[in-house]
Amino acid sequence: MTQNQKPIPDIPYQFTMSVRHKYFELIKSGQKDIELRAYDEKRRKMKTGDKFLLYDAENPDQSIICEILNMHVAPDFESLFKKIDIKRSGFKDIAELMDTITKFVAREELAREQVVGIEIKRIR
């Protein structure tokens, strides 16, 4: 959580995550209900039923509380999208996803980590 961010006191949460503004707005509006991440140490601690504070990386004062409905773990994004509909993640296809994600994470790093589609619902 950033210094400017104000916690939502009446709903306890276990984790915080930030997303770019575009994806924050998609989740907030209900158009996106799967968040894609590397299945790193932090994500391995998350489980179904956990609640987390999700905030807009460009506007940290904007936040919502989400609940994890399911953790879809796969060796790579291609395998993940055999389990879930990619459109639920805010991307139209794997090419768009890879073009976006490789601006932030090297392909070699992606190859070393499993990935997870965190199925969520906004609760506040």
Structure description:
This protein has 124 residues and is α+β, with helices and mostly antiparallel strands. It has one domain (15-122): Roll (Archaeosine Trna-guanine Transglycosylase, Chain: A, domain 4), CATH 2.30.130. The chain is built from five helices and five strands. A five-stranded mixed β-sheet has the order 1-3-4-5-2. A hairpin with a 6-residue loop joins strand 3 and strand 4 (63-74). The chain is globular, with a radius of gyration of 14 Å. The mean pLDDT is 90.
Q: What is the percent of helical residues?
A: 25-40%
Distance between the amino and carboxyl termini? 17 Å
Structural class: alpha+beta
What is the domain tally? 1
- Portion in beta strands: 25-35%
Number of helices: 5
What is the tally of beta strands?
5
- Mean pLDDT equals 90
Low-confidence runs:
none
Output the CATH homologous superfamily: Hypothetical protein
Instruction: Kindly identify the CATH topology.
Output: Archaeosine Trna-guanine Transglycosylase, Chain: A, domain 4
For the sheet with most strands, the description reads:
5 strands, mixed
Within the largest sheet, what's the order of strands? 1-3-4-5-2
H/E element sequence? EHEHEEHHHE
CATH level 1 name? Mainly Beta
User: What is the CATH-assigned architecture?
Assistant: Roll
Q: What sort of overall outline do the alpha carbons produce when their principal axes are compared?
A: globular
Rg: 14 Å
